[in-house]
Amino acid sequence: MIGAPEPYRSTPIFDETTLPAGLRREHRTKVGVWGVIRVLEGRLRYRVLDPASETILDADHPGIVIPDQPHLVEPIGSVRLRVDFYDQEPHSENTRGCAVHPGSDNE
What we know:
Layout: E1 9-10, E2 14-15, H1 21-24, E3 34-49, E4 52-57, E5 63-65, E6 71-86
Antiparallel strand pairs: 1-6, 2-6, 3-4, 3-5, 3-6
């Protein structure tokens, strides 16, 4: 059996004050790059812009970032999070409960 994909890179842990401005405004991953937004504490609003959707993420509900899909995040009070990046869709026990948005192959 082949193991679950491992991230090739992870961001530092951010909080509501250190979360970069670039993540708070529209941005996207490169073609072929998936992300998993992992909230460690608190809550985070995850907004996908095309097609439009909004999800509240927390420690039990990470968010999947689809390659090249415009999105942004907004802290809801105190929050700690990181983003893990993958070169393939991150199917595993670690993504159970993830918010997946329209336009993904998981619909």
